[in-house]
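Recap quiz, item 2
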Amino acid sequence: MQSRAKNPKLNPDKKRAGLGLASEVAIFLGILLVNASWFFYSFLGGNYWPVAVISIFISVLLIILIIFKSLETNRSLGEREKKTESAPENQEQPGPATNNKNKELLEANEKLRKMKDDFLKTTQDLFQRETELVQVNKRLRGLDAIKSEFVSVAAHQLRTPLTGIKWSYLTLLEKKTGLLNPEQTKIVKKGLEAIDYAIDTINDLLNTARLEEGKSTLNLEEQPIGPVIQEILKQHEPVIKEKKIKLNVDIPLSSPLSLKFDKEKISIVFDNILANAIKYTPEGGTIGLKVFREKDKIKFKIEDSGIGIPKEELGKVFSKFFRAKNAVSFQTSGSGLGLYVAKNIVEKHGGNISLESEENSGTMVTFTLPVK
Amino acid sequence: METKQEIKERVVKHILIVEDDTFMSGLLARKFSSENFKISAASNAQQAREILEKDKVGLIILDIVLPGTDGISFLKEIKGNSRFSSIPVVIASNLGQPEEIETGLKEGAADYIVKANTSPGDIVEKVKSILEKNT
């Protein structure tokens, strides 16, 4: 409404009034000019001067009247416009229904405006959150790098003195450094076992940390599984002999049993399961290792005649840091990470792992790896 | 007068151990010596450079955490120098994260050994196997 008042093109009433006044003045000025001509003609000897005087008088009166009327018309138009500007709602003289409608429209408009403000605020908040998230993400990546470096350095610092002791004991056990008496040999060997246990625990913790960070990627290669099993068995051979455990290995020689797997990771699986079987099988017990193909997977069964696991604790065997009550009393050392790590690795390969056990009777761990 | 074959064998049987822990390098040197290897020991990269300049070496056992130039930088230096690039390098370190092993092998190491998980006897066997492959 305001813009209409300010724009002459949109104000036809006022414009029309101005044009009318000009044309009327022009007409009566013309009449005045004609009568004036007659008046001056009378001075030159004509007999029309009384008529001319009366005509001029009437013309002047009419011009004054018209000017006055035009001014009045303009004034009333101005006032009307002022009213329109100051109270636009009165322009159409609305009824109660129109008033309600207007009120609803105003309310809706107000709601829309509020929604627009809210939307703008939400958008601003989202942008701010995004910026914050980017910053937090950057900080977390930085912390992750620090954590990884810390784990790496901590492992190095813990391993270094243990390596020193381990290599010293190994050197002492060599004949070239001079023979130890049986008692000394026994002490040094026990010391070596303790060192190896500490190193294994560090390795288990590192493996667990990597699994939980999601950093443990597989380096899959098509290869025979036999040599991996033989290597692990070789590592455990001294303890198996020492404990006089009977080892039954059943791996088909006719088939190479090749499949895609990460050698380092699957070695950890065998090592952890076999180490448990050896640790919890009393002297003179039996351990069986069977490998066979079953449809599109290779199945591994590691069975022992050890102390077993109480029935009520079977559900927790693959949990992190879990150790059965009878296991703790039988062998105090153990991190409780072996089966947790093994399960993670087997499942990452697309296989599965299960455990059956009976207390004081034995345990059988079965796991599968897909052939393709 | 040494024959060419004898010279080659003598060079091959010369092992340079780059390890800042002299006790550890001593234990390793002892085991290698018992297997008739000639051993030179350096406790940092600078000493190793001097030995390489003076004498011919058949294989280098290299630690990563060293004072001054670290093992990986020294490995890059060796592999970038045409005079020494053919010498096999076995990394023996207690850093053993998969990324660290991958970096070492990518930079040209013949093998990567985590010291805590092995013994001097195992290292000697590994070195013998690498030297046999290279001859």
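The CA atoms of residues 217 and 348 of chain A lie 9 Å apart.
Confidence is low (pLDDT under 50) at residues 1-19 of chain A.
End of item.
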